[in-house]
């Protein structure tokens, strides 16, 4: 009985929104062609390194043998395990340190009384998002380099020159700092939109009751945007195994590989930059990475729905 009801509900929704279906079809086709069809490539993870350089895709796939050796290497190689550890450490640092920042920034921007100044601040903090990582890393290389202003100031004060961009102990912190500088402003857009949709009558009532700005933020603003915060956190947890390939690849060098090499950069090196390309192992590592990300986002969404009633779906 319940199944029939669900089907009828779905049919009713289709009838109600049938005028929107033509707008959904292009998005579905895009997802099918660029997201779902390429997933057939995960079969390479179960093949003994097909030779795509010598043969075409289908021939190379047929000539290679089925194997689970790639997964045995994945779970036994201490080098790969260290890259997984680096990925998790950098991602957790970004979540713990950076995730609250856009929320705080959004609250500060919406509390500004001057609309012109608010727009100016938004433009300034949004701008870094549109710079490529190559440009940003180049800028910070100039600032934190051995002959940059930071080291020049340190020497002038009697300190020593520190090679920040080549120091393994500094690498993860610099990744977090650069990521925050680039993305905090852009990430605050969703929270600003959520805050702007809050009913002003709630704040008026709070003022009448004698609540100050901090109490209004804590008791009205934060609870009102909590569904948005939860959804963004779930999505971020889903990317826990992705510490930011483009950024890390642009910053990484031979001196910082010990603490900076992550799964994404390792898969790239394994597939394209290590002389002999090992497509089977690189695909196995990527598949493992994807499965873990899927489990994380499903788990986070489940507990969020159970505890707060809010989730991605």
Protein topology:
Blueprint: H1 2-16, H2 21-36, H3 57-63, H4 69-76, H5 78-98, H6 100-110, H7 115-126, H8 133-144, H9 149-156, H10 168-196, H11 200-208, H12 213-238, H13 245-251, H14 257-260, H15 263-273, H16 279-307
Strand content: under 5%
Please compute the radius of gyration using only Cα atoms. Answer: 25 Å
Largest sheet: none
List the total number of helices: 16
Straight-line N-to-C gap: 24 Å
CATH homologous superfamily grouping of the largest domain = MetI-like
Give the overall silhouette: globular
Poorly predicted tracts of residues: 1-7
Oligomer: single chain
In CATH, the architecture of the largest domain is Orthogonal Bundle
SSE ordering: HHHHHHHHHHHHHHHH
CATH-derived topology of the largest domain: MetI-like fold
Question: What characteristics describe this protein?
Answer:
single chain, 313 residues, mainly alpha, MetI-like fold, 2 domains, 72% helix, globular
Describe this structure in words.
There is one protein chain. With 313 residues, the protein is mostly helical. It is globular, with a radius of gyration of 25 Å. It has two domains: 34 residues, no CATH class; 232 residues, MetI-like (MetI-like fold). It contains 16 helices and no strands.
Describe the structure concisely for a colleague:
This protein has 313 residues and is mainly α. The protein folds into two domains: 1-34, no CATH class; 76-307, MetI-like fold, CATH 1.10.3720.
């Amino acid at each position: 009985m319940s199944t029939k009801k669900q089907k009828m509900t779905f049919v009713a929704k289709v009838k109600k929104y049938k005028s929107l279906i033509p707008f959904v079809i292009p998005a579905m086709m895009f997802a099918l062609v660029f997201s779902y069809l390429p997933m057939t490539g995960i079969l390479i993870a179960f093949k003994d390194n097909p030779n795509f350089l010598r043969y075409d895709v289908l021939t190379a796939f047929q000539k290679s043998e089925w194997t689970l050796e790639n997964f045995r290497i994945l779970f036994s190689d201490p080098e790969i395990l260290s890259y997984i550890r680096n990925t998790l450490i950098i991602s957790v640092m970004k979540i713990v340190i950076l995730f609250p920042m856009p929320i705080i920034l959004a609250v500060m921007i919406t509390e500004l009384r001057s609309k012109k100044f608010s727009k100016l601040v938004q433009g300034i903090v949004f701008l870094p998002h549109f710079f490529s990582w190559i440009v940003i890393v180049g800028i910070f290389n100039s600032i934190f380099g051995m002959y940059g202003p930071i080291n020049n100031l340190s020497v002038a004060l009697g300190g020593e020159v520190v090679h920040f961009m080549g120091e393994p102990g500094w690498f993860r912190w610099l990744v977090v700092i650069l990521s925050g500088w680039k993305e905090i402003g852009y990430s605050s857009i969703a929270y600003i939109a959520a805050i702007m949709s809050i009913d002003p009558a709630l704040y008026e009532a709070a003022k009448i009751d004698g609540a100050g700005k901090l109490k209004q933020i804590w008791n009205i603003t934060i609870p009102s945007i909590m569904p948005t915060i939860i959804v963004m956190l779930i999505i971020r947890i889903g990317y826990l195994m992705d510490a930011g390939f483009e950024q890390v690849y642009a910053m990484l060098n031979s001196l910082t590989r010990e603490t900076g090499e992550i799964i994404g950069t390792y898969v790239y090196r394994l597939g394209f930059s290590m002389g002999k390309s090992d497509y089977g192992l690189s695909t196995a590592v990527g598949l493992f990475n994807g499965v873990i990300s899927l489990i994380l986002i499903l788990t986070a969404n489940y507990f969020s729905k159970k505890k707060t009633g809010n989730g991605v779906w």
